[in-house]
Amino acid sequence: MAIHKDIAAYNAAQTPPERRICETLANAIDRALPDAECKVWHRHPVWFLDANPIVGYSKLKDCIRLLFWSGQSFDEAGLKPEGTFKAAEARFTDVRQIAEPELARWLAKSAAIQWDYKHLVKRKGRLEKLKGL
Question: Which one in 33, 57, 102, 131 has a CA-CA gap of 20 to 30 Å to 24?
Fold first, then answer.
């Protein structure tokens, strides 16, 4: 499957080492979540299931951050809590830091374990469980 054109453009705008990280992540996410919709959302590549954000990545000052919206519920040591909701992240400065089996496990959990971010505003900032919890 070809990477979405807007995501390919985002990846191409990165430095060569960052581009390799982004392309590796995009390909792995596309393989693991074939039914997900993907687009550049708030200027970063994000994948959605049923309009609910699941996973995305972004360029930070010194790394590429992989973010799972429901990642704190995955019980994975390689993911660090991020923000005030249920998100968790991993940060990469080199493509060799991406462990394919670990990434595949995180991506499988991202489809199986979800909090409802789609209706977060409607619920005035209160998250509800969708599945897998």
Answer: 131
Cα–Cα distance list, 21 to 45, 83, 89, 95, 99 (Å): 13, 23, 15, 5, 12
Helix (H/G/I), strand (E/B), else coil: 96: helix
| Torsion angle (degrees, nearest 10) of CA 108, 110, 114, 119 | -140
Q: Give the dihedral sign, CA 54/57/21/90.
A: negative
Q: Does domain 5-131 match CATH 3.90.1150.200?
A: yes
| Confidence (pTM) | 0.90
91-123, pLDDT tens digit by residue?
999 999 999 999 999 999 999 998 677 766 676
Secondary structure class of 125 (helix, strand, coil): coil
How far from each other are the two terminal CA atoms of the chain, in whole angstroms? 31
